[in-house]
Specification:
8 strands, 5-stranded parallel sheet, about 260 residues, alpha/beta, globular, disordered N terminus, 10 helices, single chain, 3-stranded antiparallel sheet
Length: about 260
């Protein structure tokens, strides 16, 4: 990677919340081969976390963990078994006892609950409506954070992990910590396109803006914490966003210790 460009990126990226634009040199991946490389990505609904994180994991040849899918799996299990989502103790117990299996390949999403494939079922609108009741349960969060950290460790700490409080709680010691954000208008537009135009404006607002407001009471994902890079993708297409995120990764792993 060109030394001048790298130095400019470092100097621009040390301040909290600084947006980054950089195109990495082709063929530079994988980075830190044989050493830990956890890329922690936070962001609000509709910011493109999942699709971007998967592609970054492919490019860097890392495992991939969608922590949001774990909360959705708990919500699905509760609804399937008739657990009252308003009963915090029962929901926490469901999370602690959940038999959950999930793929960590960016190319093969698969979620199993008690051996049943729920990969598609956890994306249904009823789960999107119910998941905040699970995600705001502190006991559930404690249990799933424990599992998430165990998964990261089991993969030799070479993984892209995305969700809500990854940079500040789950993997606050990650080699790369990044907030991927976008304007509300961009996020609503993207989520609407993702759902194929099947949702009304009110439904989209509930799934994106209202859900974020609920989840932000227990997780930090709207503003970059100290030392966390920010990529604002409002005016970027998918490829440009990937380039920006890869630029952050290169910058973070190339910084001198303590910088």
């Amino acid at each position: 990677m060109a030394g001048t460009a790298m130095s400019e990126l470092n100097s621009q990226s040390t301040a909290q919340g600084t947006s980054v634009r950089y195109t990495p040199v082709a063929g530079a991946e994988p980075l830190r081969l044989g050493r830990p490389l956890v890329v922690a990505i936070d962001g609000p609904s509709g910011s493109g976390k999942s699709s971007v994180s998967k592609e970054v994991a492919r490019r860097l040849r890392l495992a991939y963990l969608d922590t949001g899918a774990m909360y959705r799996a708990v919500a699905w299990d509760c609804l399937e078994r008739g657990v009252d989502l308003a009963d915090g103790g029962a929901v926490e117990a469901a999370a602690r006892g959940l038999d959950l299996g999930l793929s960590t390949s960016p190319d093969a999403e698969r979620i199993l609950v008690r051996g049943a494939d729920v990969t598609d079922a956890i994306r249904e609108p009823r789960i999107s409506t119910a998941v905040s009741a699970v995600a705001t349960n502190l006991g559930v969060r404690d249990e799933l954070i424990r599992r998430q950290r165990a998964i990261i460790a089991a993969h030799g700490r070479r993984m892209v992990v995305e969700g809500r409080d990854i940079t500040t709680v789950v993997a606050r010691d990650a080699e790369v910590r990044l907030l991927l954000t976008a304007s509300e208008a961009a996020r609503l537009r993207r989520r609407g396109a993702q759902l194929g135009g099947t949702q009304s404006a009110e439904q989209l607002h509930e799934q994106v803006v209202a859900r974020d407001a609920k989840d932000s009471t227990v997780a930090s994902f709207t503003q970059a914490a100290d030392g966390v890079f920010t990529v604002d993708s409002s005016d970027l297409d998918f490829d440009q966003t990937i380039d920006a995120v890869l630029g952050v990764v290169h910058a973070a792993v190339s910084r001198p210790a303590g910088a």
